[in-house]
Specification:
By secondary structure, the chain is of the alpha+beta class. The protein has 10 helices and 11 strands. The strands form 3 sheets. A 4-stranded antiparallel β-sheet has the order 9-10-1-11, covered by helices on one side. A 4-stranded antiparallel β-sheet has the order 2-3-4-5, covered by helices on one side. A hairpin with a 5-residue loop joins strand 4 and strand 5 (154-156). It is globular.
Length: 281
């Protein structure tokens, strides 16, 4: 009788991939250098917000707040009211002094990101006009009302200007087409929502992060003969015999740290991995 093969799960999780891509697009090089040198920006941010030293082991709640509600959430231009609402919804019982401070701190320490929102805002009229344009220093190209991603995928950006509030609106739901001088209520009824450079920044970062994960999936399939069991955000989870897991994990981690061929001068990437018998996110 042959011996039963025992399998384990292995997981590869990109480290701050969305944040790294954002800083790479914006040219926020000091933060990329900090990550590359091994600094814990979450602890540093929490220490600034809560006015005392913070470590991962001793202050997990404060560090997690700094991670989720400041570093990873303020990158797309949210204001102070939204910051307070989101923090409360996430279960953080902190005063407005802290939630407001998270917005101020982020914008003060990420001037290039703030400037990038403005660059994205300035390009919206060109996207709406259907012309071709390229965001200098990035892999982002727009043509004929589409964002053309590095893997060839095209994402439609149907934009309309609303004179009532002097703002752009983007169609995100099904509905009728916008007419000149439609009111805000009319546009919303037709499936449009208010849009600006922060929203475009978020879309681009998340789209490029998904391409990074797709590249890992293709590498695993083509080079290692592996398919994912499932995906969780930017995490790849696979299964393999026990005696192969460590080798497969190391190969995939090596690939995860390479630059993308479509952005060779982009941000440095990193990833973490784990072999386990039962998945725990």
């Amino acid at each position: 009788m042959s011996r039963m093969t025992r399998n384990s799960l292995f997981a590869i999780d990109f480290s701050q991939v969305e944040y790294r891509i954002l800083c790479g697009l914006a040219g926020q090089q000091d933060k990329l250098d900090a990550l590359d040198s091994g600094r814990d920006l979450y602890c540093e941010t929490a220490a600034a917000l809560f006015k005392h030293p913070v470590t991962k082991a001793e202050n997990p709640v404060e560090r997690q707040f700094a991670k989720k509600e400041c570093i990873l959430s303020c990158g797309y231009g949210k204001g102070k009211d939204k910051a307070a609402t989101q923090a409360k919804a996430a279960g953080y019982d902190f005063p407005r002094e802290v939630t407001d401070g998270s917005v101020d701190y982020y914008r003060r320490t990420h001037p290039a990101v703030v400037k990038f929102w403005g660059r994205c805002d300035a390009i919206l009229p060109y996207i709406a006009d259907g012309g071709k344009c390229h965001l200098e220093g990035t892999p982002l190209t727009f043509s004929n009302e589409y964002l053309v991603l590095p893997n060839g995928l095209k994402c439609r950006f149907e934009l309309v200007w609303c004179p009532e509030v002097k703002s752009w609106f983007r169609k995100v739901y099904r509905g009728g087409l916008a007419e000149p001088n439609d009111s805000v209520d009319q546009l919303r009824a037709k499936g449009y929502t208010k849009y600006w450079g922060g929203g475009l920044t978020e879309f681009c970062c998340q789209a490029l992060s998904r391409i990074r994960l797709s590249e890992l999936m293709l590498f695993a399939h083509r080079e290692l003969g592996m398919r994912p069991v499932f995906l969780v955000h930017d995490e790849y989870v696979g299964i393999a015999p026990d005696d192969e897991c460590d080798w497969l994990l190391e190969r995939m981690l090596e690939f995860s740290r390479l630059p993308s061929p479509w952005w060779l001068d982009g941000p440095p990437f990193d990833a973490e991995g784990l072999v386990m018998k039962r998945y725990a996110h």
